[in-house]
Design a protein that fits this description.
five-stranded antiparallel β-sheet
């Protein structure tokens, strides 16, 4: 039986792809402890990887001296994840949709598309270097492009 107290973590890691393994392992273990199913675990894992790799590659420009802050909270109803890099930020609406026209042949935007496809809430901070994502336990994703806010 899943415990009622939320499980949370706040960690600052190196800006390199391999640094995701420990926070991700801990997040997925917390989800298992709270009784999340395979679909939710897959969705959060995929979104977390995409968001982290975007922070390292696009945000921190692969600079090993920069850091990525990862925070998450898992309770019986939702998984709430926040990532923040030390980069200049970006405007998410400026990234072309990779499903149309010439963008079909470009790699840009696919990670954002996946994050939006698998998470219920996707919000960026004003600067564009912080991402807040929420996945509700066993909840269907909305079919429209509209997402609820946390």
């Amino acid at each position: 039986m899943a415990s009622e107290a939320p499980i949370h973590c706040s960690i600052v890691v190196e800006s390199k792809p391999s640094a995701l393994s420990e926070p991700c392992r801990r997040l997925l273990a917390a989800m298992a402890e709270k009784g999340y199913g395979q679909d939710d675990v897959f969705a959060v894992h995929l979104a977390m990887e995409e968001a982290f790799f975007n922070a390292v590659k696009h945000g921190n420009k692969m600079d090993p001296d920069k850091k990525v802050k990862v925070q998450w909270l898992v309770d019986g109803e939702k998984v709430d994840v926040q990532l923040e890099d030390e980069g200049q930020g970006f405007q998410p609406e400026s990234v072309p949709d990779p499903r149309f026209g010439q963008n079909l042949y470009r790699p840009e935007g696919r990670g954002l598309l996946l994050i939006n496809a698998y998470m219920h809430v996707v919000e960026y901070n004003e600067q564009g270097n912080g991402l807040h994502m929420v996945r509700y336990k066993d909840a269907p994703l909305p079919e429209s492009g509209e997402r609820p806010t946390a």
